[in-house]
Amino acid sequence: MSLSLKRHPMPEQDPKVRAKNFAEVTLGYTEELAQSEAERCLQCKTAPCRKGCPVEIDIPAFIKHIKEGNMDASIAKIKEANGLPAVCGRVCPQEEQCEKYCVLAKKGESVAIGRLERYVADYVRGKGEAIASLEYATDAQKVAIIGSGPAGLSAAGDLAKMGYKVTVFEALHLPGGVLMYGIPEFRLPKDEVVQAEINNLRKLGVEVVVNAVIGSTFTVDELLEEEGFDAVFIGTGAGLPYFMDVPGENLNGVYSANEFLTRCNLMKAYRFPQSGTPIHVGKRVAVVGGGNVAMDGARTALRLGAEHVSIVYRRSEKELPARLEEIHHAKEEGIDFQLLTAPTAVLGNKEGWVTGLQCVRMELGEPDASGRRRPIEVPNSEFVLDVDTIIIAIGQGPNPLVQSTTKGLETNRKGNINADAETGATSKPGVFAGGDIVTGAATVILAMGAGKKAAVAIDKYLQEKKNK
Amino acid sequence: MYKILVKQQLAPSVQLFEVQAPLIAKKAKPGQFVILRVNEEGERIPLTIADFNREKGTITLIFQEVGASTVELGLLNEGEFLLDLVGPLGKATHIEKMGTVVCVGGGIGIAPVYPIARGMKEAGNEVISIIGARSEDILIYEEEMAAVSDELIITTDDGSKGRKALVTQPLKELLDSDKTISLVVAIGPVIMMKFVAETTRPYGVPTVVSLNPIMVDGTGMCGGCRVSVGQENKFACVDGPEFDAHKVDFESLMARQRMYKPHEKQHSEHINGKKEGGCKCHSH
Fold first, then answer.
1. At how many degrees (to 10) do helices A113-126 and A31-39 cross?
2. A60, A44 in Cβ contact below 8 A?
3. pTM of this structure
4. By three-state DSSP, how is residue B58 classified?
5. How buried is A368 (Cβ within 10 angstroms: 0-12 exposed, 13-18 middle, 19+ buried)?
6. Closest among B281, B283, B259, B251 to B67, alpha carbons compared
7. I need a surface site. Which of A137, A216, A320, B84 has the fewest CB within 10 A?
8. Angle formed by the axes of helices A150-161 and A444-467, to 10°?
9. pLDDT digits (tens, 9 = 90+) for A129-142
């Protein structure tokens, strides 16, 4: 059999149908498709794919097990490195990570590593994965994890496996961070995938405490000095939404993407009034921004019944920061792209509701400090987009609650915690940090990688502490 | 899960819950609030902490049944549980000895004014309180407020108790008197807080109001509660809920509070349908 240069496509819902429901868009490989796709892996000795994976999963090994039909061995191999494979297989930007380095990518299409990781995780979960709880020594040291997003969960899983008693503190009523409130149900099912994977961590013995706002319920200093924790990991993410700072931004119908997505994903406003949380979506929606959050907001608005949804982005298509797959999905579903366009004001009526978004056209000038060509306003190009709902998705910053209530914890100018890139160590002994709270908004898997590195460093710190 | 130890009806459709929440009781300060969820399908609603008892590990919540979620909350009985309760949230009231402080509470807003008045009194201030309601039967916390105030003035719209006046009238008389007033704290309906701000503005007396915009998470991650204060956007849940009344854009706040009016009606109909035996809008 000659090697196919093309990857096996993954079945997905028809765009016309899926634009009206919240069920998952992509349906995942069947066993046959997964095995055929696994056949394409050349099992390179050097495994260049691994250097693209922030947690360095042994990719050829887990794919080999799929090829041989041994899914239990395959998931065990993945879980040596990654505690949330059903999540990562779905939301990692594989085209910039593992799949970018696959040797097949030089001649054709890379092995669909993400889809295979997802397949094996879903398969094993579907048949009921057996997870034995860990045994803890009576004098096991205690670690507090602040924030239950990807960074915290990754650190928690690794530390539990090392024998530490781990407690994860979460401010919201459900754990998962951005996996619960940010990424929509149609990309990442909440009960079936996210909570199921978190429950696997609970089975290991990780304790999850919800409704606990660190900085208020407990401070970091109290965790260390009064609550008996030996080390703390801060993974509080980038959850503070930025607004545009243009007139009219407080009119009714203007949402931050965080609020819009939280209402829909975490609070299940798409099931209102069965679910008690309302959401407002008009007929015509503008989403400001060009990242994954913007795509998520636009596609969510469409599913909530909007007739026309535009992405408003100040650079050109080439600079859109969203994943290609997401842009592609958005276009298939009929999302309109207003590129090289920047909002200047939100217009409203006297009852306080949005009636339009005033914009200007842009053109690209010289590259700026970030290396991207700087957008410049085209003179006299003002126009008004006829919309009644606006979702602002121009980025998030660090929530200051933990930093501002912790003695001796250094932050940078933007409010992110200063932490060593390799160990996550902060300026405060025994306190480690990682993920978006250190780097600013990035990806799920980078946050998980940071949690992983910090777990290794915390282990080292605690062993030294114990031997003192 | 958070157990309701005491349930008490204070006035028609106004309920008091004393809830077991030792971690919140340990940290709570006047001016702070909690967010709660009644059940799995429930929305997150903010309520100000009306009182706390650190020894008993309880907090007191007072709420008016104004919409579907508060009606559902009111259906819970002693011994039953709130599913989620998080707090204390927001900044605490700045309390210190400053002289004479006037505490103004309107309607259900009297409840959150109470711990502030008590704190101000304990800090050594002369506390003059003005509490008002539409009529006598919905006036709450009269005795409690009297106990922590040097002087208590009661007003009702219909004259059924105290003076037939709005709270701003005795406030203006105090401002016109010889007394030096260091601070006015006002909590109540937005329209009342706005008129308190307009009453004190010409006298230049510092005035603090506690805002009650729509909230979701209550921890600063969504901006749903944003308010314009001195031309600047603030998140009431983390920067507030208390702000300088003379800088607040009350018109915008009132417009934003109306955002989900049609939804609230729909939700109420759904909850009423459930109460009358089975949900009618969705087949299970």
1. 140
2. yes
3. 0.93
4. strand
5. exposed
6. B259
7. A137
8. 40
9. 778 788 888 899 99
Residue A279 in tokens = 């959401």
- Asked if A361 contacts A341 with a C-beta cutoff of 8 angstroms, the reply is yes
- First-residue to last-residue Cα distance in chain B: 26
What gap in Å lies between CA A377 and CA A442, rounded to an integer? 28
CA-nearest of B19, B12, B15 to B35 is B19
At A380, list the tokens. 């006299």
Amino acid at B144: E
DSSP secondary structure letter of residue A317: G
Residue A272 sits at the vertex; the CA angle it makes with A271 and A277, to the nearest 5 degrees, is 115
| Single-letter amino acid code for the residue at B126 | E
Q: Look at residue B55 and give its three-state secondary structure.
A: coil
* ipTM for the complex shown: 0.92
The answer to whether A303 touches A285, Cβ cutoff 8 Å, is no
Contact between chains at B68 and A216 (C-beta distance less than 8 A): no
The pLDDT tens digits of the residues spanning A6-25 come to 999 999 999 999 999 999 99
Cα–Cα distance for residue pair B233/A250, rounded to 1 Å: 9
Cβ of B27 within 8 Å of Cβ of A217? The answer is: yes
Which residues on B lie below 8 Å from A278 (Cβ)? 43, 260, 263-264, 266-267
| B37 interaction partners in chain A (CB closer than 8 Å) | 173
Spatial CB neighbours of B269, under 8 Å, sequence gap ≥ 6: A273
Dist. CA B284–CA B282, nearest whole Å:
6
